[in-house]
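JOB MANIFEST
job_type = single_chain_structure
chain_count = 1
residues = 252
[input]
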Amino acid sequence: MSLQKAELKDQSLVYCCLVDSKRIITYRKDNDWVIQYGSEGKPTIWGDGGYQTNADEGIEPFLFAKSFNYSDGHESYIDITEEFVLYFKLYERAENKQYRNYYFIDELGEMIEVIKVEPSKIKIRLKYLKEYISIRKIYFSICFDFMRLSKQSLEEMKINIQEKEHSGENYFYNYSIRHLDFIEPWRSQSFIHGKIIINPDETMNKGYLFDYENQEYAAFITGFDKEGNEILQNCKKEKGKISLSHTSNEKY
């Protein structure tokens, strides 16, 4: 039986957080995000006078949903943790708080887009995220929640009740289809709720984006020596000038 769009209601949220190595073992064991969108926690002083940076020990916000009410208006937007921005020394260009881009500037002055901020979507280049969590030896949790409500009952759709749990080393989620009789006019509900873990690269000892000494550079033919061999010169930049190091191929 086909369902009309008007009979359905979809809701979805993909969020994230950073998890330290001491917390990750227990964090993998259930579908609880721990962190919540819009209530990520902020630096605060507890009853004993102690200062705490994050609301939950071992769980660190990566995105912050911010909302402000002021005398003549309201504005909401998403911010990225400043530590990530500072680590890569990202350059920000913005139309406004809703539309922003962050760029990594390499040693040749080229701008590489790392973060793209839009009102309901944040895109981050995976290469930079992987380096960040690997250098810090922490884990990145992608938290997700997808729900669909229907005005039709499970009997009308010929679907059975389901309740399943799926887990592995780097994921944990619940899948459910059930009756719904307490939210009018919806009569049935299905949802997937859980998280996927991105592990740090344990072989990375220092950031490859700043490890210029070990980078490979393209080489170009810039001439020929007296024996007719090609002179290859790479494009590595050293102290404000292009390196003059070169190699020669076999004669031809």
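[summary]
Helices lie at 24-27, 82-87, 126-136, 154-157.
The chain has two domains: 5-198, 216-248.
exit_status = 0
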